[in-house]
Write a structure and sequence with these properties.
By secondary structure, the chain is of the alpha/beta class. It is about 40% helix and about 15% strand. The protein has 6 helices and 6 strands. It is globular. InterPro entries: Ester_Hydrolysis_Enzymes, SGNH_hydro, SGNH_hydro_sf.
């Protein structure tokens, strides 16, 4: 999540986490699971040393847990749900993922974009991914406190409703334990928007249980 002025280059990480005996490629072997992460700066390692973000930690977790999975990070700093929606069809065609993790919506909130538009874009992405045969995991976000409690509740509830209606997986609040900590400044970079390196293991801990349920 990140303003247009801070937008940086598209960062794509593709990691093959094939570990343990018996997981090597061979004739007739089952095609490995392919996880596509579609997010914004929270997933694109904005402001972090390369290889320290939660997506990279996820690749390491997959290896540790001996999941044969290919991980593709197609996150772009500054992206919105509109941007994700426009990019997803080509990504689905190129990577043919078995799982799609959608971490978008935070920039929509920061820019004051209509909630109905954000919801429509998220629903379209879920539908596109599912139509392509992928399981979907939504990473829920919350709006900044200055938008008021009513808008905050509506925004958070949007992810819950979408997941329920589409039978997608859900992490209710991606920044749990970071954005709602009693001393949140220790978890954020100087801009007070982007989680720092110390927060990345917690972000992974928020995602992993829900993703693990979807992995075979």
């Amino acid at each position: 999540m990140h303003t247009p002025l801070l937008r940086r280059r598209h960062f794509t990480l593709s990691v093959l986490a094939l570990v343990g005996q018996g997981f090597g490629a061979s004739a007739g072997a089952t095609k490995p699971t392919r996880i596509l992460v579609l997010g914004d700066s929270l997933s694109a390692e904005y402001g972090l040393a390369r290889g320290t973000g939660w997506v990279k930690l996820l690749a390491q977790k997959l290896a540790q847990e001996k999941y044969p999975a290919e991980l593709v990070n197609a996150s772009i700093s500054g992206d919105t749900t509109s941007g994700g929606r426009s990019r997803l069809p080509a990504l689905l065609q190129k990577h043919q993922p078995s799982h799609v993790v959608i971490e978008l919506g935070g920039n929509d909130a920061l820019r004051g974009l209509p909630l109905a538009m954000t919801q429509d874009n998220l629903q379209a992405m879920v539908s596109q991914a599912q139509a392509a045969g992928a399981q979907v995991l939504l990473l829920g976000m919350q709006m900044p406190p200055n938008y008021g409690p009513d808008m905050n509740r509506q925004f958070a509830a949007m992810y819950v409703q979408l997941a329920k209606q589409s039978k997608a997986g859900l992490v209710p609040f991606f920044l749990r334990g970071v954005g709602d900590d009693a001393d949140p400044l220790k978890w954020f970079q100087a801009d007070r928007i982007h989680p720092n390196e110390s927060a990345q293991p917690q972000l992974l801990a928020n995602v992993w249980p829900a993703l693990k349920k979807q992995l075979k």
